[in-house]
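Reopening this one. Same input as before:
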Amino acid sequence: MYKKIFAKLLVLAYILSSFLSIAYCATTSEIFQGHAEKANRFKDQSELFTGRVDTLDKKDVLIMTVSQVLDGSSSQEGDEFFAEVTNDVSGEGGVIIPAGTVAHGKIRQSSGSRRLGRDGWIDLDFDYIMTPDGREIPIEGKMSTKLHPLAAAGKIVATDVGYTAAGGVIGGLVALNMLGLEAAIASNGYTVAGGAAVGGTIGLCASLYRKGKDVLIAPGDEIRVKINTSIPLPVYKETALLQHEMQYEGLTIKINNITYEKDPFGELNTITMSLSITNMSKMTFSSFDFALVNDYNSVFHPSIFGDTTLLFQQIKPGDRVAGKISFSVDNIKRKFWLTFYDRKNRKPVAKISVDNAYRKVSDKIKKKNAKLFRKKNYYKEDDPFDI
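Same output, byte for byte:
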């Protein structure tokens, strides 16, 4: 009961914060105009590619995140969707598919959960990708949440045996409690055995009635798409993969480290950055004067649920500060810019690409961040509002 009340209060707080955010954006809409436009910064392909060609091999795996909810119980065969490659894919000579590449997919088959503990599943097909430089490349990729038939059967049998065994133990204890130890001794244990049999039967009925779990893939969930064809692709220059930035004279901002974290509710939605800031400009900045802005122009202000080292500091002219700051975002895998604003007119004066900085993060930190996305299944969580 308390969990449901708490969940409702969270939703009410979220709705209120969303309303305030919309109102704020309405008054400062000019701030975000044209922020993440995809300008053609390269005159020809010689500025994009090194001249080498590597191969996307058969059986390679692309890590993606979907752009919409895919629900095994409601999605239909043939439904189209888009996904985005979240990690650079490299060959021997360098990157051949950059993060941000969009993939087109269709639902091949899907099924909701059924009785006998059978879980839902979704099968996905991918037929082409669109790179950030505008190329459309045919591929053949597949992804499925369905377990191998033997593994699925073993999972169901193991669970049902657990139901039956638990029912037998409970039934035996109930018989012993109701009829007493003397009756059990006098009947040579038949009263306990009978209770166990009844309990086991009830447990077996419960296992037969039990439904499996419905599968759901949500934006932000990582999926692994297996490639079934070999495709030769040109190798990108490193400079071609850098995101656009905007500098402000006298203000030097360096992102030294980036880690992903879960919030107090267990949601993986927090980006914590270690910053070094040198302010030789005439402006004073605080945490109210900077935010993360993604490629959809969504704005995320510093979070109180993460590291608050820089949250309450004033960065005055002549100051040099270092510390950490956290942001709660809707999808960690989107592109972000750390954006500083002029306090007087709320116009951006500096934009530092988080993606550019992440390329320089140590492999150890990247592996640690990647582990947080490894998900064994895509099953729906229990609804706290389900009374």
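So the earlier flakiness isn't reproducible anymore. For the record, The radius of gyration is 27 Å.
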